[in-house]
Sequence to fold (226 residues):
Amino acid sequence: MRFFLDTADLDEIQEAASWGVLAGVTTNPTLYSRIGGKLDDFQAHIKRICDAVGPDCPVSAETVAMTRDEIVRDGRELAAIAPNVVVKVPTMVEGLAATRTLADEGIRVNMTLCFTVPQAMLAARSGARYISPFIGRFDDISEDGIDQVAQIVEAVGNYDFTGSTVNGEQIEVIAASIRSANHVTKCALMGADVATVPFGVLKKMVKHPLTEAGIESFLNDWEKVK
Ligand code: E4P
Fold:
């Protein structure tokens, strides 16, 4: 499992990158507005994120366009920011059609707001490079987000979609809307390719009270050795 950071906050991205575990970044309009982002600085900010993580880390930037022509136009503009930009497109008819066009042009798409296996199958056939099923938001409506993502991971793994994607790359499932370290455990066990996590969850993933107690006791005993 690889880890993407689900944020538009450059400080968080730089900190996570310094840990040596960051494989990508996902943003969305809410995350960008949360850092006080403004429309006229959006593309420049995505470029700053791309520069911060380097060319091997995909950075998802989301379109808010609602028609296929506008999504394609947005997708081309976003993809022109840097080679590692991935265009985030919502799972909907216009999004599927636009994804086909973008993928045929060599532009990678992360199909987002995916909640069911049929949605994921369509996203995969449309040429999406990444599919992002949301866990937390599904839990929020009293559904089982983990179970749904497990079904999507299994269903996507049943087929070869390399004929649909840019350069024949393997589709990857990004477990999204992750709210806890326990979500990460479940996603790792089910074999999700990627977990995109908020920085708060990433910090919690490192910690365990027994680890902290163990470090403290080793340091104390080392004092006796000295
Ligand atoms: C994924 O790409 C989304 O940006 C994100 O995971 C949404 O998470 P939320 O449901 O906690 O807002």
Q: What stands out?
A: The chain has a mean pLDDT of 97. The pocket of erythose-4-phosphate is lined by residues 6, 26, 28, 112, 132, 134, 136-137, 176-177, 196 (CB under 6 Å). Residues 37 and 45 are 8 Å apart (CA to CA). The beta strands are 2-6, 22-26, 59-62, 85-90, 109-114, 130-133, 172-175, 194-197.
